[in-house]
Each structure stands twice: as structure tokens, then as C-alpha cells.
């Protein structure tokens, strides 16, 4: 038992408090990332304790609504990026920009004009 306590202490999961003769071990609460899907399955299982974990996984899928991430948001619903709007505006105003400038020159020029706009 002492070996397990020592290992947990070394990994930072447990702390030791007390005097020389008595040492009390206290588990440190760890903050862990909660996966929304697994949290949903956990709640589903607590409401249906008679279900096996496999059945809970299959049945909770029917009631789960995935959270929106940036990748799932359609382009029309995304917040516009000011830098990309600046680039697109330049492209619209200069349709032959590829003939007159290198890509590096375009970015340098846009960076200068973008700074003056945001200042």
C-alpha cells in the first residue's frame, strides 16, 4: 500500500500532510478534459442503469446532439476574417495582380495598407 501511495505522490496525484510520526495522504483533485460525447453517455447510463455500456453507447447516439466546432460551421455562418476580406478586396480591385506582382509583393503591400486601416 505504501508503494502505491509513494507512486501517486511522485506523479502529483496525491499529497502528503502531517507531522513526523503521522502522515496523512490526501488525493489531489485533478481537472480533466470532459469529452461531451462521453459525458452524454455517462448521463444516459445513470438514467438507465440496467443497460450495458455497449447498449448505452448505441442508444445514446440517438439523443446526442454534437456541439458545433469551427470545422462544422458552414462558410456563410462564419464570422468574417478582416485580413481575408482585405485580401479579397485587393483581388477584386486588381484582377491582373498575378501579372504585375509576385505573391510575396502582394502580401507585403497588403500588410502595409492593412496596418493603416486598423490603426
In short:
The chain has 119 residues and is mostly helical. 51% of the residues lie in helices and 8% in strands.
Describe this structure in words.
The chain is mostly helical. The chain has 3 domains: 1-31, no CATH class; 36-67, no CATH class; 80-118, no CATH class. Helix content is 51%, strand content 8%. It contains 6 helices and 2 strands; from the N terminus they run H-E-E-H-H-H-H-H. It has helices at 2-10, 36-47, 53-60, 82-93, 97-100, 103-118, and strands at residues 14-18, 23-27. A two-stranded antiparallel ribbon has the order 1-2. Helix 2 (36-47) packs across helix 3 (53-60). The model is unreliable at 18-23 (pLDDT under 50).
What is the strand and helix layout of this fold?
Layout: H1 2-10, E1 14-18, E2 23-27, H2 36-47, H3 53-60, H4 82-93, H5 97-100, H6 103-118
Antiparallel strand pairs: 1-2
Gross morphology:
elongated
| Quaternary form | single chain
Instruction: Tell me the radius of gyration.
Output: 28 Å
Q: Give the helix/strand class.
A: mainly alpha
Summed over residues and divided by their number, the pLDDT gives a mean of: 75
Domain tally: 3
Order of helices and strands: HEEHHHHH
Number of helices: 6
